[in-house]
Write a structure and sequence with these properties.
This protein has 349 residues and is of the alpha/beta class. Helix content is 30%, strand content 23%.
Amino acid sequence: MSAEASSLPSPQGRGTQGGRAMTPILSVRDLVVTFAIREGVVTAVNGVSFDVHRGEVLGLVGESGSGKSVTGLAILGLVDAPGRIEAGSIRLEGEELIGKPERELRRLRGKRLAMIFQDPMTTLNPVLRIDTQMIEAIRAHENVSEKAARDRARQALLKVGIPSPEERLTAYPHQFSGGMRQRVAIATALLHRPAVLVADEPTTALDVTIQAQILAEVQELAAESGTAMVWITHDLSVIAGLADRIAVMYAGRIVETGAVADVLERPIHPYTAGLIGSVPSRNKRGVPLAQIPGMTPSLAKVPPACPFNPRCPRASVTCRTIMPEPTPYDGARMARCHHPLIEQAPAAA
């Protein structure tokens, strides 16, 4: 087990019983995902480790190209050539997923594992009615009558706030607005009350009002069913109101983790502080929007040692020559930084 994996903290106030940590519903350890491209082999996910417990929402945040979406796809076994999972472990309720035959993974997807994509048309078939798609999704995993499956599909649409669900079931995806299509995709993903739901920026393209409604509905539904969620986004304002814990990714690595309130109020890593500072609501009216200087590095040309060092105002020679190790901090937190913004937790006696 890597240093990062061994230093992972347990979430505060969650996943414990009788003073002992409960087994996480999803455990990712030392995950490495590579892609073969013309320039050579690039590492999109590099040694990523985290746990998610039942009913918990983990926010996986970072700029485009940080490896968030690839991590989500890897959890569901959806990394296709030229990509491959090079190393690591992904356990669902203690069961190893890496190396499972595709046939077994298909049985898990949609039932114990589900994913919501940014574009609902990735999930929905444009030439099939909604009832056909939802009923097939139910009967693919459960031996129930078509009537029972239809009743369940209708109730699922009702739960995500779609009015006149019986009428909507007979419609085609193109007859729905973008927000309504996303609600259908969410309802379909939650049909079997999956153990883990991976959501890859599913509300990014929606207007603020619809986004807020869907976030509230997903949070409530996940809490009711005990579903653990990995919510992938670049939007910290979404995570602030939705997630329990946050994992910040940069250039394929997790650079900071902790409870949402702790990370947003007292960031440890300069990159996390830069992300928070660039949120529009944190900037005064009339003042130019704060930005992190530079650009996310190409995964084919990641800087040596700490990959954030060319953009970091606190970078030193050490940052350019030595990769920082994952370090524990007070409040069940972890960060990779030679010059953190807060002091490290004192060593245990």
